[in-house]
Description:
By secondary structure, the protein is α/β, with parallel strands linked by helices. It has helices at residues 2-39, 91-108, 113-129, 131-142, 146-166, 205-217, 231-242, 257-269, 282-293, 317-329, 349-363, 382-397, 449-457, 472-481, and strands at residues 57-59, 62-64, 71-76, 81-87, 173-175, 182-190, 193-197, 220-224, 250-252, 273-279, 298-302, 307-311, 339-345, 401-404, 408-409, 416-417, 420-423, 440-446, 461-462, 464-468, 486-489, 504-505, 508-509, 522-530.
Amino acid sequence: MNQLITLVKRNLKKTINLKQLYSNRILIKQNVQLLNSLQISSHHCSAQKLNYFPEKAFINGKWTDSVSANKFEIYDPAKNLLLGSVPDCNSSDLNQAVQSANEAFKIWSNFTAEQRGKVLRKLYDLHVEYKQQLAEIITHENGKPLRESLVEIDSSAKAYEWFSEEAKRAYGDVIPSPAPNKRFIVLKQPVGICGFITPWNFPAYMIARKTAAALAAGCTVVIKPAEDTPYSALALCQLAEMAELPPGCINVVTASRKNTAEVGKAICHNPLIKKVSFTGSTAVGKILMENCAHQVKKVQMELGGNAPFIVFNSADISKAITGLMASKFRNSGQTCVCANRIFVQEGIYDDFIVALAEEMKNQLKIGHGFESGVTQGPLINKNAINKVEKLVSDSVAKGGQIVLGGNKCNILGGNFYEPTLIRDVTTDMEISKEEIFGPVAAIMKFKNEEDAIRLANDVSVGLAGYFYSSDLSQIWRVAEKLEVGMVGVNEGIISTIEAPFGGIKESGFGSEGSKYGINEYLNNKFVCMGI
């Protein structure tokens, strides 16, 4: 009997230990599952079709209506057909999103850099997997040709891939101390909640370049997309759900043109938002900076461009025209870095005009973005058409000669403008001073290098600049003297996630992309340790 009691006690002790062990194993298993979900890039089979036109905003991981229940309509700019409607959010909705981001920040900022990188890698994988659908959404809401939309999704995917890797490289520093009883270190810490206001011309990539860097640093975000193109932002929210990004890390607040100013002001004034990043016009950027000044809030601005494109006598004309075609007519001229003020040296001016006209005739085709072979989609809306018409009319009235185009196209929804070539442009024309944001190449003649640099720098902005030359000494001189943040030398396409993107002067400040991009979302904290 005593032996039996001893055996039972032993088995009971083992049972208790096994229960404890099982309980511990459950906890361990749960943690391992969580870690695995962060460490293993999931490759979904694309059984799931994205909702192209959701009718909700996205706050705290939930699809929601606006507090007011009001909506506004979104139209396809090519046909002016209704795509759908989205919530017309106001400051109340914005503040709810900020509260959500604040709670999420407490969780996300405590993820390790490796864990954050794994989630971003999932977002990269999902962009690759859903590339076709994401591109179709862009073409529906923005109008650009599908092949350009596909390139934009490639760029967006690369942003998440790049910053999935940069998350692990947000290094601090150890500083040699002058005192033997002190040690100096610098910690890198996320700035906090970020408010993004993004444009319509690259509705996926502009969000990706900001969001990927912010998430990599440990920040959470509230996004106010352009009122013309909210669906790419809402598509990102669907991918975020698939990637199991914690609720509240990404929030999208949609707002009409009527409510945009109110929501923008709320982003600037909400004390929980620690940084505002904006891509858009210089005029709006200045308003946002004024609103952020009350709290001395960190801001990052990517503003107007008005890029010079200079062709010197020594240039390879064929290569210069290839570069100009790529830079000027991408997205129908609606990019912040596209060639805007085109300067051609007098020795090759006439030959250049003839060759460019021929290339424009052969390469450019207007139509709906889903049509095969189309290179020129619509402008974003009627206001954009009206602006281009005014600039062209002013040029003609002041002596400009139209070589090609010069008219609005009355096809589909009426938002199309002919690819246009104007020669004999002068500095008194509005087209030489304003960003065109349309498919118009306005060509001005210059005499010498000093003349070209003076004309190129004679504006208040400085985002990108381009020039073509075969003179090595001239290349160094001009690259250094152009007052811009980015220079294309014998190259018309310069934007890439591996390099810093940003301007100087009234084109803003701060860098997006590259190894510098993540630093825009990190604070330096100096720690002085006595020993």
